[in-house]
Write a structure and sequence with these properties.
single chain; 469 residues; TIM Barrel; 2 domains; eight-stranded parallel beta barrel; five-stranded antiparallel sheet; elongated
Amino acid sequence: MIFRKLRLAFLLLLGLFLVGCTVIPVDQGKDPNPGDETFDPDDDYDKLTLDEIKAIIKAKIPEIAPEKLYLPIGIKDSSASISWRSDSEQIDIISGEVTKGAKDTVVILTAYIRFHDQTYVMDIPITVKGVELRPLKTKNVISGYFFDSKYFAISDEMASQIDVINYSFATIDKTTHKLNLNGLYHLSEVLALREKGIRVTLAIGGWGADGFSQGVRTKEARETLINSIMETLRKHQFDGIDLDWEYPTSTVAGIAAHPSDKANLTLFVQELRQAMDSYRDDLLLTIAVIGGSSASSFYDIPGLVPYIDFFNIMTYDGGTGTVANHHTNLRPTAKQNTSVVSAANVYLSLGVPKEKIVIGGAFYGHRKTFTTVFDGILYSPTTPSGTLDYTTIKNTVLTDPSYQYYFDEEAQAPYLSNGTYFISYDDPVSIALKAQYAKDNSFGGMMFWELGSDKSGELLNAIYQVFKD
């Protein structure tokens, strides 16, 4: 008897609960467009006409696209359902993400309205405002590579001092010949720097990155790779491409190579330039090139010149042997010919116009361990002991009293030693001397590897102070 009374009370309460309950659509509370809701496809009532539905949909699409756009999939008091298509990758209809280009763009959103077993199509224009990029200079350009794993939020002052960021690295799938951006975890943050006027290009390749040789070997492979690059440019609105193939025709670091690499690279660059220009006439196409006398072994420089905006000469990692020498010195010495000046002269002799030459600075140092120390320290026998970011050199090594600072006037380059280790690097003095050399010779400018290795901004500022006048 007690059980029956309890059961009756439970059913009574359940009935009262169901009578007062309202079914809430899953997306309600998340959608900022009041009145949108999801629908039961069996709903057979409609309080709105098709024209009223179209008017409501149109009213929900702003004239200017916000950072994130919410597209209605249904209208209150109607069984109509709506699906969407965009004629531009600048608006992702799935996520609602809006990507700004270099100029204002009118995007056509197409609404497919399913109503009373019929599909009606309506096009709605929406303007995606462009970012205001700073005018690109023809000389004294400051560009820097930004390696994703060393990303940090740069200050407004640093942002005001850099013209181009080469976001590093996308890679090439050696089988499909398509771009892979999987390692670029800070893509949205880096692209957001465009709002500060910085041009952000996508750097492809890097040390030990395979896929170039396979990707440019045939016309079909090049077409696939170029289509993938262009799709990426359109989707993310990069301001250009930097090619970092280390190195054509070489199997260094275990990458694939072919005797035709040099010729195929030229064909690829020519075809890529044509595709880029047909999309946007302000896109940069740059290339990172070896900083030594062997340039003509890897590149058809005269063939590349008409299509490349800047040759980013990697004038660092020059002293990687087994003696204590400089890795990024400005001038050659009696015992070391590799230098910024030597490398620049090689490219000038091969026909690169001076306004397309961009010399390199290093925001890191090479450390070596002495095996024997001669009186002069420099050129003593050593073994390599890795690299150090400038941040570490500044905060840890330079504050260590066991280290002695030296400046080689002949090479115009600093180095450090504590009797056990030798460190070759760029400091504000040497990097400013490089900038002055580039400025005095009317070169295109200066680049560096890499931005995240000097969080203080000290080295970037040293370049900027020379170039700003």
